[in-house]
Write a structure and sequence with these properties.
This protein is of the alpha+beta class. The protein is 45% helix and 13% strand. The relative contact order is 0.06.
């Protein structure tokens, strides 16, 4: 089976000039598109952050006041420094006291309270380095036995979920993402013995889900992986 990157020293085939040009054009696209899209996304994100941060900075402190133009990326640097300073203050006693005081005020506001608590839970789930972050990818049988799906182990089930479940053993909380958008999915509570942990990283498993199985993360080709003996 030929690919776009086949060696030109392979036995020649009768291909027209248009066919050769088309093959080289497709090869160029495969090389250029990932690089171009990556640069475009980074450039766009930097511009978005700059557009949000720079208007908050006094004009006398911006590069435009000294050199006449706004350097792209200054807003990103300011945002990083400001975020680090806020994080440093928040870890101290005074910072924690101020945060608790502010949250108590917010909890007294009906609408604002709901928005704040929801955004805070999402932020903590994504960014906080706690036991709630996904650390292991797994295989589960869903939506029925014989059909396998990739999931992410979050925690062991606790509290009322673990106490009232009709199982004899421990339950595992598994997030089952959807394709190609892994930010949506299902929360499943499965018996621990029904969850098969994978050696691949969470990042590799996410790539497999997002690509709908096209980007296989294993260094070993799927056809070379060992198979279970027939029972």
């Amino acid at each position: 089976m030929s690919t776009l990157f086949d060696d030109e020293n392979t036995p020649p085939q009768r291909v027209s000039l248009f066919g050769r040009l088309r093959a080289r054009f497709l090869t160029g696209l495969v090389v250029i598109l990932p690089v171009a899209l990556t640069i475009w996304l980074i450039w766009t994100m930097i511009g978005w952050v700059d557009g949000f941060v720079l208007p908050l900075i006094p004009y006398d402190l911006t590069p435009a006041n000294y050199i006449g133009i706004n350097l792209r990326g200054v807003g990103v640097v300011v945002f990083l420094i400001f975020t680090i300073l806020v994080g440093s203050v928040a870890k101290g006693l005074i910072g924690r006291t101020l945060i608790r005081f502010g949250e108590n005020l917010v909890n007294r506001m009906p609408v604002v309270r709901s928005i704040y608590s929801g955004v805070k839970q999402i932020a903590e789930t994504i960014f906080a380095q706690t036991e709630r972050s996904f650390e292991t990818a797994c295989l589960v049988q869903y939506p029925r036995k014989g059909i396998w799906a990739i999931g992410f182990i979050s925690t062991m089930a606790k509290g009322e979920i673990a106490g009232k479940s009709e199982t004899g053993g421990a339950l595992v909380s598994v997030f089952l993402p959807t394709t190609p958008n892994p930010t949506s999915g299902f929360l499943l509570f499965l018996p621990k013995e029904d969850v098969i942990e994978l050696d691949m990283t969470v990042e590799d498993a996410a790539k497999l889900v997002i690509s709908a199985g096209l980007v296989y993360p294993s260094r070993v080709a799927p056809e070379d992986l060992p198979t279970k003996p027939a029972s």
